[in-house]
Amino acid sequence: MTDNQDLIDLVRTIPDYPKPGIQFRDVSTLLLDGPAFRRTIDRMIALVDPDSFDVIAGIEARGFIVSAAMSYALEKGKVMLRKPGKLPGKAVSIDYALEYGSDRIEMHVDAIQPGQRVLLVDDLLATGGTAMAGVELLRGQGAIVSQALFIVDLPDLGGAQKLSAAGVKPLALMAFAGD
């Protein structure tokens, strides 16, 4: 088992972005390193039982990168949770609060079959607003969402606790305390 320090070292911190006081953990520097990105995906897959879910839902935008790679490796379908106006078919949506504003995500109404087990994936877990919106959106269409997977967790911001309180097990490769 690894402590993932090799991957942690590749995550860049950008102070005061997108507003003063925020320490933005930028995984784009990790994604630039092909072998490290492969290790990231392999290690994320090792955190879950592929038989425990039917499809993977990725949250736009960086969550698409991770979920697409996992979907490919595991030969699982991928559900796209998108920003407004990006889906061509009939969509359902949910508004949610972020630590620095508000947003909305959508998915096609026929993307999930009732009773399907969905693994929610994104790059980073902070306050949990985006992840909880994804959970609520998926569950609203009949999905069973019992776990969510992230590259980075910012535990001091409380997102993992929100997911746990909603019956969703949060998993992450790394955590940055104090953010």
TrEMBL record:
<comment type="pathway">
    <text>Purine metabolism; AMP biosynthesis via salvage pathway; AMP from adenine: step 1/1.</text>
</comment>
<keyword id="KW-0660">Purine salvage</keyword>
<comment type="subunit">
    <text>Homodimer.</text>
</comment>
<comment type="similarity">
    <text>Belongs to the purine/pyrimidine phosphoribosyltransferase family.</text>
</comment>
<dbReference type="InterPro" id="IPR005764">
    <property type="entry name" value="Ade_phspho_trans"/>
</dbReference>
<feature type="domain" description="Phosphoribosyltransferase">
    <location>
        <begin position="31"/>
        <end position="143"/>
    </location>
</feature>
<dbReference type="Pfam" id="PF00156">
    <property type="entry name" value="Pribosyltran"/>
</dbReference>
<dbReference type="InterPro" id="IPR000836">
    <property type="entry name" value="PRTase_dom"/>
</dbReference>
<protein>
    <recommendedName>
        <fullName>Adenine phosphoribosyltransferase</fullName>
        <ecNumber>2.4.2.7</ecNumber>
    </recommendedName>
</protein>
<comment type="function">
    <text>Catalyzes a salvage reaction resulting in the formation of AMP, that is energically less costly than de novo synthesis.</text>
</comment>
<keyword id="KW-0963">Cytoplasm</keyword>
<keyword id="KW-0808">Transferase</keyword>
<dbReference type="InterPro" id="IPR050054">
    <property type="entry name" value="UPRTase/APRTase"/>
</dbReference>
<dbReference type="InterPro" id="IPR029057">
    <property type="entry name" value="PRTase-like"/>
</dbReference>
<dbReference type="GO" id="GO:0003999">
    <property type="term" value="F:adenine phosphoribosyltransferase activity"/>
</dbReference>
<keyword id="KW-0328">Glycosyltransferase</keyword>
